[in-house]
Records
---
Amino acid sequence: MPTRSDASEPVEGFDTRTFLKQLTERPGVYRMFDANGSVLYVGKARSLKQRVSSYFRKSGLAPKTEALVAKINHIEVTITGSETEALLLEQSLIKSLRPPYNILLRDDKSYPYIYLSSQHEYPSLTFRRGRSTKGQGTWFGPFPSSGAVKESLNILQKVFKIRNCDESYFRNRTRPCLQYQINRCTAPCVGFISPEDYQRDVRHAAMFLEGKNPAIINDLMSEMEAAAENLEFEKAAAFRDQINHLRHVQEQQSVHGEGGDADVIALAQEAGIVCIVVIIVRSGRVLGTKDYFPRFSIEQTEGELLSSFLGQFYFGSETRREIPRDVLVPTAVDGQELIARALTESAGREIRVRQNVRGERRRWLELAMTNARQTLLTHLASKETVYRRLLALRDLLQLAQTPSRMECFDISHSHGENTVASCVVFDENGPLKSDYRLYNIEGETAGDDYGAMRQVLTRRYRRMVSDHGKRPDLVFIDGGKGQLNIAREVFENLDISDIPLIGVAKGVTRRAGMEQLIDALTDRVFRVPADSPALHLIQHIRDESHRFAITGHRARRDKKRRQSTLEGIDGVGAKRRRELIRYFGGIQEIRKAGIDEITKVKGISKSLAEAIYAALHNE
């Protein structure tokens, strides 16, 4: 059982050296408090002394962790009997205390199940939220959402016609209900089907929920053949229709093949948002997905994020969550062996947390990663998310109105070559890709980002002024004070200084969440909290501008690399290039040839051959 150490009492003034010196090496949980006595963070440790001391080292801390440490007024610790016990206690405390610096899952609903009652002659299949030990029956699931349960029940009604009405309704029927009329129930309430035939349908429905479609089809084919031999053609036709329905369902199944149960977990993060997707696989069938957007305030790696998520997902819920044999993750998880041991103890059987998988399990993991990326992009692009961020951005920058058109510029090149500038546009619906533009920068000194920025802004906004084009409400420059000063100079020359202009500098650590914003109007340099919706919008715009610039630069660079060196020679057009390539077989062979050999090509004179030779040999 956990025991409180002497260090659990608040430390007056928090003498760090004394506190760390008397800490134990035993496993346990630590809680960090601010000056108001509010819990900032809860963590677990194999060695309390080593883990807590790591927060107070002189260098090497992430900036967000430094921000946390700066707020600590005192620390309390609880010693536990094992590291596994520390993990379970940590999740219990996170659940009850909701510390602001821990990852927090907002969706804590228990998963829905399908319940097959077994105490009745004509059992029903019903939707249930959470698994109960009361009553006799079989539970199928968990399903990732109520929609997945309704879809499965809909299939079961179509194919097997199992009732889903409640008991009081069933007992008081004197004639068939609408479900019988639309061919979705066999009306057991009024005895239109024998108990034996109904139990056969129930058995097949259970096999379907267990993922045994091929076995069901074989059973139904045998039943169909037997009915046909007995000249029961209507009954045989009903079996045939069931087989066709099941085969259609099997074709639609997104994943089918290897058996086994697994929770498949993947993570994607962008613009300060983390999306975690859980795919539920039972008996080799993908039952659906569940999306989570946990809140986090401390800079963490993917392994740390997944570790925190797994702890809360399996141990932080009030209702016990079903644990499958395999938990599949895309990358190594911090404390992976510890989590596997804790899951094994909780389930009473071996549970594996795995990332290096092959075959069907690898495809499940790839499916989860694809879903995570797409779900995150959809979330970032959702109108509600963008609008909320726009309001936060308006308040942050103290704008008179909510911006409806924002533009951001970035420069990309390779050691000064093939310089490209990007302009991306966001409106109240998110990225407005039809208005994105790329600018090839010419005539500037190689590597001169300031000159490139001056050129693209001048070209962009001179045209806006002369053609009365679309005017932005806010402009972002990806860069520091130097780039921002260039932008301010261009805006003054074009007499558009009334457009708000913000520089987005990466900060000293160059990490997401540590950006510095520079207001061109006031020269104010300020930081925004990492969990600010306004910062998330700025990061999204900046990242999209950066991505678009790099894409344009690479396309220009690759095009230049693909371009034949013959294209720059006067007098050598497409037809003569074709003849040269046809005669020699390639540019390398042309380079090896002498002037006399080149003149043998159709349409090549001696003077042109000399020009070709000189060009290929840089003479």
---
Amino acid sequence: MFKKLNNLSITYKLSGIITLLIMTAMLFVGIFSYTTIKKAIISRTFEQLTSVRFEKTRRINNFLNTKILELNQLANTSKAIGIFDNLIFNDSTNQNSLDLIDFNHIIGDYLLKQANVNKFLIYNKNVLYYVNPEDTSKHFVNFEITGLDTILNDFGTDSAAIISDLLTNDKGEIVFYIFTKLICIENNTYIGFEIPSKSINDIMLENNPYNGLGNSGEVYLAGEDRLMRSQSRFVENSVLKIQVPNSNPNNIDQNNFVAETTLDYRGIKVLSSSGIIEWGNTKWTIFAEIDYKEALIPVNTLRDSIIFIGLLGIILFTSIVMILIITITKPVAKLKKAADEISGGNYNVNVPVNNTDEIGQLSDTFNQMVQKIDEQKKRLDYEKLNRVQEMIDWQETERQRLSRELHDGIGQLLLSVKMRLGRIKGKTENDERIINDSQNIIQQTVNDVRNISNNLMPSVLSEFGLKQAVENILKDISQNYKIATSCDINLTSLDDNKTITYLYRIIQEAVSNTLKYAKSKSINITITEEENLIKLEIKDDGIGFNPNQVIGSGSNGLRNIRERVKLLNGKCSIKSSQGNGTVIYIEIIK
């Protein structure tokens, strides 16, 4: 790692060290500010939730106390007591046994003026009666609901007021009941209201934009069985159906509350303030909650601001530092860049000299060195090109000489030997057979010599031109390799033997590579001639290859093609990929 750091430039080292120091300082300040403000926001949110919870608790208690007060006022009305007494000591099922006019006047009209009351009820001798305040023309009706008689009996005879837990009435509605004792009657008689749970939901779900609960906060109730006692803000029909985690009111002291970060009934992380509401023997837990993410929005906003300001400060300070460092090290960087270009083979570089100090003198010396290197490279390239051309020309000359010697010398001698053997008559049948075998061997040797001579320098190239020579190559491929070939050569004014020979060798090399490696089914060769340009395209549909990998691996075939094109002052491009064949495109300036 330290070796890599040593390879970095001075500019990067200085700017990196200064930037790291700035980032460390800003990171420390940012973390400290974020942590402090986060704690303050969470503490403030708990206080706000507790305040909302106290307010909801107060309103529920006021609502219940109001209903109990209304029952007490009704129970102490003299005319109402008379009706109750008439009901208790007479047959309640007989409509004529009651003064229904007085009942409508006193109780019915009173109930119709009350809000949040479903039924008026009378409990006596373990029998429960009710009347609907919207229909008081009928007599009292026996009323039975599962669990309510048990609640009434459990309170005993000494309870002045009874408040039940939530129950489901005969219509499937979720309600609760409030009873107060008629103290003016000897028997234990209670009167009460059936109140829908909607009255509690209206208090819990009040949408007050100033209550501090935001978009995700809510206040709800839960019983000892952990089931919700008020409607959820987010889940419909949640009363007595949704289970609330950690809602046991026995774990909460009546004078205290619990403020914690926990998961609510939806499994969402929230800030929660919980306390208890006690109704007689029934305890409910009241929760005031808000989503953790929403509560921390101010903190996250501050965090984003700290990050933004920190990044802006880092960029600003780093930019100033970089400008100063670059101004000092810019000449050295130019020298390094120029050296990199020279190492990449580009000698046409010049470092501007703007100062006369040590760096300026170094830049001037560097420019002189580059100029001398460029001159030497051009001279070496010229000499190399001449040597390559001389070598190729020598090869062609030797091929022509060997071709003539094989054809005119060894070939003629072999034919002469064959003809002389043909004139000899064998003395025996065995001698005749030996002579025939010798003639066949000589004939095969003649054919081989002719093929070698033709490959070294095909006579058809010098006698009939490039088009006929290329067609002969393709004809031989079609016959021997069963590969489809096509040729389109249009040369009218090309009479340079050197160019013709080089083009033939290029085609010969390309076709040879195709036969060895391409596994193609067709080969197409096209040569066109323009005013000052000759275009050659060799195309096959073989398996293809990666030109960069093949050239980098030292392929002699492609290297020979490129060298010959370069000697003809041309350009060569090879396009190929796996499975897509190969196209060799060459342009030669006449």
---
Amino acid sequence: MRHSFPRAAALSLALLGSTALISPPAHAADTSSLDATKAVEKNYTPVPDFSGLVKNVSPAVVSVDVHLKLNQTSDDGSGNGGGNGPQGLPPGFPQIPGMPFGFGGPQQQQPVEAKGSGFVIDPSGIIVTNNHVVKDARTVTVTMSDGNTYPAKVLGTDPKTDLAVLKIIAPHPLPFVELGDSSSVVPGEWVIAMGNPFGLDGTVTAGIVSALGRDIGDGPYDKFIQIDAPINEGNSGGPLFDQKGEVIGVNTAILSLSGGSVGIGFAIPSNTIKRITTQLIASGKVVRGYLGVAAQEISPQMAAALGLPTDNPAKDGALIAAISPGSPAEHAGLKAGDVITAVNGLVVTNPGDLAADIANVDPQAKADISYLRNGKPQDVGVAVTTMPANPDAAFQQNGGGGGQSAQPAQGPLGLTLAPLTPDARNQLNLPNNATGAVITAVVQNSPADVAGLQPGDLLVGVGATDVNSPTDAVNAIASARKAGTGAVALRIVRQGQALFVGIDLTGKDPSQNSQSQDGSNGP
């Protein structure tokens, strides 16, 4: 079970006297003498009983045991087995309170076992679990609710959605569960989580849906169902059921300061599971649509500068900060400064929506895109292609053709601009075809400084106007100021990432800018 939003401080829990928690108060009425007639007359509402549902679905819920490969190292080189748990333990494995790992000195590597959960979705032995449960697995074993154990083959994994599909061979058709429609899930409805928390197989917990569409920064396509049904280490990969006994999610992550459930858990929606598992079963990999844009949220300053609605700009679409050369977006005529508001009729409120909607389009299929240009609504059909293995590498910033000024120029926003020379291009690690004006200095407490601009940023555009030199920049900024919107939007490149920065001309602090490339997190 992954922990979202890690914290440095641990939450201390105090044990309370159990009798004080479960004993009725002294003044409570004695209801033992109430017969059935009186109970009906008083119109008592019975507590929900999930026993029938659990009996029907539990045979399809499994435990997943994983022996990890040795000598696995984490991304940061800490040797944590590729995960975020204590050193030498598999991802999500709990640390025993009061027992430090390492025991005072180096140890010889021993085989490490991790446990998770899963569920059968086809009687032939197809099982869904989390990618982080089987990541770096040497062997995988599945244990059914009746105690039978089978070796499992990993058919495919998808780290971007944290899903994996396993296959076991049994001598008979296996009990299975159906995937429901997560689009019909609403906050407040009862849900049941099942799995193998802390190795306690067959555990059932109940709660309600707390919220929908949660982005916890775990991946580019986060749209989790938030629940308050307790889930803990080992629940990863287990099913989340609705009251019809259909799977509406895969329990995946928790928000916790203590390491255990505090009533905030997250599940991958079943509609995502359907789409991803279908591809993994068929080919062992997932193919996603690709548009070729870097997009970001819209701050109030950028909305004012670009002539966009200012009521709730952060929820009014995805602002295109850059277009990948040769991409479907470029072929369709989309430009930096356009704001995408819908894909195939689905409303786009932010870059995350855009990333998910485009990823769900079959490559080579047409995507109908609605967008705003200079505040005016437009539509275009885009022939989406297959997302490349490294979509970020496809972005090469090019502000367009044109000459460069020979002298630095200081702008009215508190910027000092200089030409992009070959030496500057090398220092900033920019491609040879990059053009623009280099920000060499920012006046302290100036509008540019308040907006967060930094020396080394490459200014490539003002609004939708490309900038190829300091002179271009000065003229474009002057034109934008004359428009009288109270803000100006500068398009920059910082450490290889393109984004708009809204500069307020009224003295107010600008909002933070978040940026993505077809859904990837920006700087």
